[in-house]
Amino acid sequence: MGEQSRSKLSFRAKTAIGLACALAAIALALLALATCSHQPDSSGGPAASPVKVVLSGDPLPDAAVPGKVLLCGGGAPVDEREFESAGEIDFGKVGPNEVKAVVESMPVASDGSTYATPAESDALTVTGSGEEVVLEIELEKIAAEDMTKEQLEAVAGKLEEAGKADAAASAREHAATAPSVAGSADAVKKDPAPSSGDSSASNPTSGNSGNSGN
Q: By three-state DSSP, how is residue 22 classified?
């Protein structure tokens, strides 16, 4: 009888210990869940938003020189990405701010084709809601055979800087027979603002109107 009583007590004790452990585990799980549910977002504070820049346009073949897109916030660059062709660029999450995308330089393909200098994207406000923000810029592809002498020389310079000597030589060869249009290189590159005495850049296309040998 004594041994049976001890066996029953031992069983009951083990059951009680197991039940206590289970209750403790449940309590810890509930505490962890409550902690996770009270993150900063629940406090009503601003949240960063995913920001994407969508470059629409015809793709470039095998870009030899990448372009660069700046993401500006509050009037100053906050991030940058290189790109080789039209497509989406993911800038990750950005805190509440007014943002715009600026294409600082265009990619150049090994055949000399590139994109025309695009306009900046419209400024959008990252409100702090955490919702995705998309900035769109349309790219206009310029084929090498449609370029002017000045444009081909400009892309040749980019190719040379990137160490693409053969592609640069090919672009310069085509430039020798391409039509010359004063100021047209501005379409494929960004130069520093001209000085006040430089009147040729103020009207980039008018120089061709009187370019006639007849």
A: helix
How far is it, in rounded angstroms, from Cα 151 to Cα 182? 10
- From the number of C-beta atoms within 10 Å of its C-beta (0-12, 13-18, 19+), residue 9 rates as exposed
Distance CA 168, CA 155 (A): 8
Cβ atoms of 107 and 188 within 8 Å: the answer is no
Q: What is the pLDDT of residues 93-140, one digit of tens each?
A: 998 989 999 999 999 999 999 999 998 899 999 988 899 999 999 999
Tokens standing for 126?
């990252």
- Position of tokens 């430039």? 175
Is the overall model pTM greater than 0.85, yes or no?
A: no
Domains and CATH numbers, the chain: 44-142 (2.60.40.10), 144-193 (no CATH)
Residue 101 in contact with residue 77, Cβ under 8 Å?
no
Rounded to 10 deg, the angle between the 165-175 and 149-161 helix axes is 170
